[in-house]
Design a protein that fits this description.
The structure is a homodimer.
Chain A (H helix, E strand, L loop, with lengths): L14 H16 L9 H8 L3 H13 L3 E4 L3 E4 L15 H7 L5 E5 L2 E5 L4 E6 L18 H9 L3 E12 L2 H7 L6 E11 L4 E10 L5 E6 L2
Antiparallel strand pairs in A: 1-2, 3-4, 4-5, 5-8, 6-7, 7-8
The structure holds a DNA duplex (19 and 19 nucleotides).
DNA sequence: TAGTGGTCTAGACCACGAC
DNA sequence: TCGTGGTCTAGACCACTAT
């Protein structure tokens, strides 16, 4: 039996593609962000297809950022690329995240500082150990790295270099960001120098592609 | 039977993750770009796993840009993130591509100009039709849009805004860039103003994440 | 304990590409 | 014709979540 909301077995289009279209239409018409979709086995019954088909359709939709699958709970509708944030260039990570309204927490691991912008970005910062004695012991939980460097060491960022590319989330980064591995991510590699020209900071930041945007103003030379 | 290059059935790691590691090691050690990997059914026999496992591993590797699956032919090794290029900010597309040593060809489609940086980037440019009478008829095959705008209309870019995010390649863009759909891509949305403040150009550029990098120098305000 | 998504098996038929 | 990857079925067991 085939109807307007079912799978057409005579179509040349694969079942999972048909199902994707059905689900997208359903989500856009009837679901809000955070809504729980029917379970995979229920979709099997509803659309009379095997779980392989349902999982391929939902897997594609997850890769496209429309839904999020959570083991043991279900499949949720996510925001649809609407919640972009802003990162001003020439700002430190903490400042730019705060400016965008995000809470920033950080953990200090030896001389490695790892910031976690609430399931948004992942960051690895490397600082020359010689320049910053005692930095590893400092409480950075709710302070900017730049604030600490300025107040404790008198070093302020003056210029820097940023390299931006797109990459697929590694499984480790995906875990930190609570996003599917392989999902597109913005990767920003950064070097910062003080006014004296001392190269004092290097970091690599990973941003979820579906929730982040990097914006800058440019002028002619 | 388990050996150094096989699947460990006692491991907590899923078979497809183990197989991914095995294949990545094999590719990095023994394969060159363009090489044909063993078929899926041969991998099933070699590693004593079902085709589901092999397909999940190869599907992940394709999403990560390491291999390319071709129906009826097989699975090929692709280039591995080595060929990054540079795009200077505050430059037009043509200039930045040329600076990076790329050949730029373009097609004029009505008032739409589409540049194709030899399987590297895809670009859509929108210009206000009122400001540029006759632009659609001009030969832009090997000229910069900015060159034409300056020589024919006396308009020069002075300032602009860039928004950069990461996205998955749509199947259409993937076709143009000869890359797998879903692969991470850098998306740059750009607005350019003349010295008089006239907003005269808007474009969206899609760059393959595995071959492109966007670099900029920043200074403290 | 019951339900969910994650992983896996052992098959099957298909369209496509090379021969 | 034969081998390839693409799609699909009908099961199974698992870890995780909630109650």
């Amino acid at each position: 039996m085939t109807n307007a909301t079912g799978i057409d077995v005579r179509s040349f289009e694969p079942y999972y593609e048909q199902l994707k279209r059905i689900l997208i239409r359903d989500i856009e018409a009837n679901r809000a962000e955070g809504d729980l979709l029917p379970s995979e086995s229920e979709m099997c019954r509803t659309y009379a297809v095997s779980r392989t088909v349902v999982r391929q359709a939902l897997g594609d939709l997850e890769n496209e950022g429309l839904v999020l699958k959570v083991k043991g709970k279900g499949t949720y509708v996510t925001g649809r690329k609407l919640n972009t944030s802003f990162v001003q260039h020439s700002l430190g990570f903490y400042e730019s995240m705060q400016k965008a309204g995000h809470v920033v927490r950080s953990k200090t691991l030896a001389l490695r500082t790892e910031h976690c912008g609430v399931s948004m970005a992942k960051l690895r910062t490397v600082l020359p150990a010689r320049l910053f004695p005692g930095l590893a012991d400092m409480d950075m939980t709710d302070k900017s790295l730049y604030q600490v460097l300025a107040s404790e060491y008198g070093i302020r960022p003056a210029s820097g270099h940023r390299a931006i590319d797109a990459t697929a989330l590694s499984s480790e980064d995906a875990h930190h960001l609570r996003a599917p591995a392989g999902q597109p991510a913005l990767r920003i590699e950064s070097i910062t120098r003080s006014a004296e020209g001392v190269l004092f900071e290097y970091y690599v930041a990973i941003y979820r592609g579906d929730t982040f945007k990097f914006e800058l103003e440019v002028t002619s030379p």
